[in-house]
Design a protein that fits this description.
This protein has 765 residues and is an alpha+beta fold.
């Protein structure tokens, strides 16, 4: 009779039986599970499924072997063997030494072979089952050999066998999703074990997790740049407000890319008065420079306006990048652009921007101070303390700064220091005293912002990812950023800060500004009430000049107030720099009994409703275009969410858990019965395409980028240097590595040190 492999069978087996005097192990199991000569199946898949069920009960694995076809091309015979059948051919691992040529390509120098320890899995087992084709819908067992030349697996080792391991969609999704937040396959495997309660319940091995992660990278490898560009083109089809542009070199290698989604463009229209552009990131395997355009939002948190890749840090690359940035942002130039001291970037900014003020990041300059001046001065004296008091001061005028700087240089004998002389010559580009009137949004000290943004992106990516992987991780980072902003928005709208004075103007500020900004203003109001005093007054026509003194401070501030229109100007220039009223202005307003902050001194960018204002045109309504698209991936995410919710609801009651488990098992059987039993050969590829959201193109016109040779990339070496060579290291880096190196006993001088008798400095003595 023809057997249907889908019918339910018992998995109970009898103890292992070994006939005396033979060299074969013959498993004893229920006759319902054991195939026999003459047994018929509807298809080869049914026969394979039945034989695998038998193998699972008996303790061995199955692999498909020879397929013999008839003259018509149909399958005549199909062999199924024990996985330990046959013998492995002995191989030696090949090791190839490579050099890099001037074009960045690999040139093979020599190759050698080394012995590698390998565990033997095939021992010449004779167990097998052979199917013969009878008709279109019938296959018969012609040969069945049940004896094995090796011991069979025990139940405790079942979870380690290949036949009992399977990477499910849950595993693949966890590997893929965790990679977006910089969690690798090994740690994902450990997390999975915690979720399911034990390694035996995972259903796959650590190597399976690593192999799928490898296959994911391998699928992207050849078409990385093409898939990267195609992804952005698809985004632009879905949302016309999505901006993307790229360029390739003369050999069709991707060399530049820029992108900004509609929400980022909207944020720029609101918070784009000051922009920071940092090119110190290298978050991809090609060493391309990742340059995010960032700023702070109305909660004084970092917000990203756009992302970019460039292969070279030259003038033409930066000119293209800044021009594309302006194009993507509707031609609106920022008031100020903060960068590092890259000379090519400075030239490009002058060529592209007409109204933008260019300033250097103070953090990039000040962090070099110890290396340039010497650690002896910076560590053993108060040089850094005095210099920081001079450099970071927000209230001194340029002439005061110059006197203070020269005084410090004379005190420590550094008048002729070359590097200090160079940064003094460009003082107007980085010292706050020279741009006190320039709106900086409170970001005079860019140290925390640069470090914060760097740490933020580091949590999501690393320097070994492909472009496609990077973009997926970048999107996860943007989701986290937007979620954080929404959370702060909710707190500012629905939670109310505690007031510290009875002034109505403080209450008015609490209703206008976000919580973070209000706390800064509240401090200014407190100082105005309890630490500021009247020091002088005079009137000229409609203007009143009020001298304000703070506690024991020597400096006196002059506030000019217009009684007709409430125009107020303070000599500390805090409002010009940060867009927030200062304590001296609040002192005068308090004296004038104002119960509200004058409208002209309320910048929309700091208010709760900052993101609700109308923005410049972005090829249509952003809010209408950024609609949620219900697709298969979104439905899958909702399914996982609902399953987790059901488990959470049932976890407190054992009866509910049993009820849920039984229903899930019944649903599983129902879904399995709907499948035809055919597992497509390309299922892994389809799963990868589903997770990525794109498929590899049949033909790639855009080649993956060449390995870039930029500052700090470790690639600035000639073709006669081995590919594994690293960049040149500075004295500071060498000293730090030496400090970390373990000391050893030198037989020459008898001391614990970092040298031995061969290079002992006392050897000649």
């Amino acid at each position: 009779s023809v057997v249907d492999a889908n019918q339910s069978t018992t998995l109970e087996v009898l103890p292992l039986c070994t006939p005396g005097g033979t060299k074969e192990w013959i498993p004893c199991c229920s006759t319902d599970l054991k195939p026999y000569v003459g047994m018929q199946f509807f298809s080869i898949e049914d026969g394979l499924k039945f034989y695998k069920t038998y193998a699972e009960a008996c303790g061995f694995n199955v692999r498909k072997a020879t397929t013999t076809k008839s003259k018509k091309g149909d399958v005549a015979f199909k062999y199924f063997l024990c996985n330990k059948a046959g013998f492995k051919e002995k191989r030696k691992a090949q090791v190839v030494d490579k050099l890099k040529d001037n074009e960045g390509g690999d040139v093979v120098v020599q190759s050698s072979s080394i012995s590698r320890k390998r565990l033997v899995t095939r021992v010449g087992c004779k167990a097998k089952m052979v199917l013969k084709h009878l008709s279109k819908s019938s296959y018969v067992v012609t040969i069945f050999h049940e004896g094995h030349t090796h011991p069979l697996y025990t139940p405790s080792s079942r979870k380690f066998q290949k036949g009992c391991r399977k990477i499910s969609m849950l595993h693949k999704k966890m590997i893929f999703d965790n990679s977006k937040v910089n969690i690798g396959p090994v740690k994902t495997f450990r997390l999975m074990k915690e979720y399911v309660g034990g390694y035996e319940n995972v259903g796959a091995s650590k190597e399976d997790f690593k192999n799928f992660h490898r296959d994911l990278k391998a699928y992207i490898e050849g078409s990385d740049a093409q898939m990267f560009v195609d992804n952005f083109k698809m985004k632009r089809l879905l949302w016309s407000a999505y901006f993307f542009d790229y360029e390739v070199d003369e050999d069709d290698y991707l060399c530049r890319a820029f992108w900004a989604n509609p929400i980022c463009r909207r944020n720029y229209s609101v918070f784009g008065d000051m922009v920071s552009f940092d090119t110190t990131y290298q978050f991809n395997k090609y060493n391309m420079i990742f340059g995010p355009f960032t700023r702070v939002d109305h909660h004084k948190r970092c917000v990203t306006f756009a992302g970019s890749f460039i292969a070279k840090e030259d003038v033409s690359s930066f000119e293209w990048l800044f021009s594309t940035f302006l194009k993507g942002m509707g031609g609106k130039e920022p008031v100020c652009l903060i960068t590092d001291q890259d000379p090519a970037m400075g030239i490009a900014i002058k060529n592209v921007f007409d109204k933008t003020e260019h300033r250097y990041c103070m953090w990039h300059i000040m962090k070099k101070m110890s290396d340039k001046v010497g650690r002896a001065i910076t560590k053993e004296t108060d040089f850094l303390e005095k210099l920081c008091g001079c450099v970071w001061s927000l209230e001194i005028e340029p002439d005061e700064f110059e006197r203070s700087w020269k005084s410090i240089m004379c005190e420590f004998g550094l008048q002729s220091h070359d590097w200090l002389g160079q940064i003094y010559d460009i003082r107007k580009l980085w010292i706050p005293a020279y741009f006190r009137d320039l709106f900086m949004g409170g970001i005079m000290r860019t140290t925390s912002r640069s470090e914060s943004e760097n740490n933020f992106f580091t949590c999501f990516t690393n320097p070994h990812v492909t472009l496609v992987e990077f973009y997926m991780r970048y999107e996860s980072a943007m989701d986290a950023q937007r979620h954080s902003q929404s959370n702060f928005d909710n707190d500012s709208k629905n939670k109310y800060p505690e007031l510290k004075t009875p002034l109505l103007i403080e209450k008015h500020a609490s209703q206008l500004y976000t919580t973070t900004v209000f706390y800064e203003l509240q401090y200014e109001i407190e100082i105005a009430c309890f630490n500021c005093g009247f020091d002088g007054f005079r009137r000229e026509n409609e203007l009143e000049f009020v001298s304000v003194k703070e506690g024991s401070r020597r400096r006196t501030y002059e506030v000019v107030f217009n009684c007709n229109n409430y125009d107020t100007h303070c000599s500390c220039k805090m409002f010009e720099r940060q867009g927030l009223p200062c304590r001296h202005m609040f002192f005068v307003w308090k004296g004038k009994l104002l119960d509200r902050i004058p409208e002209k001194y309320v910048l929309n960018r700091w208010t709760i409703m900052a993101t609700k204002q109308a923005t410049f045109s972005l090829e249509g309504h952003i809010s209408d275009q950024c609609v949620k698209i219900v697709d298969k991936k979104r439905i899958l995410n909702e399914v996982w969410s609902e399953i987790h919710n059901c488990v959470s609801l049932a976890e407190d009651n054992e009866d509910d858990l049993i009820y849920l488990l039984n229903n899930l098992k019944a649903l599983k059987l129902d879904l399995e019965s709907k499948k035809d039993g055919n597992v497509p050969q390309c299922k892994k590829i389809k799963d990868i395409e589903f997770l990525i959201g794109a498929s590899a193109p049949n033909e790639s016109t855009i080649k993956p980028p060449k390995i870039s040779k930029n500052k700090g990339s470790g690639e600035q070496f000639s073709s006669n240097v081995i590919a594994g060579a690293q960049r040149l290291k500075g004295e500071k880096e060498k000293a730090m590595e030496k400090q970390e190196k373990k000391k050893r006993m030198c037989k020459g001088c008898g001391e614990l040190c970092h040298h031995d008798i061969r290079n002992c400095p006392y050897k000649s003595k």
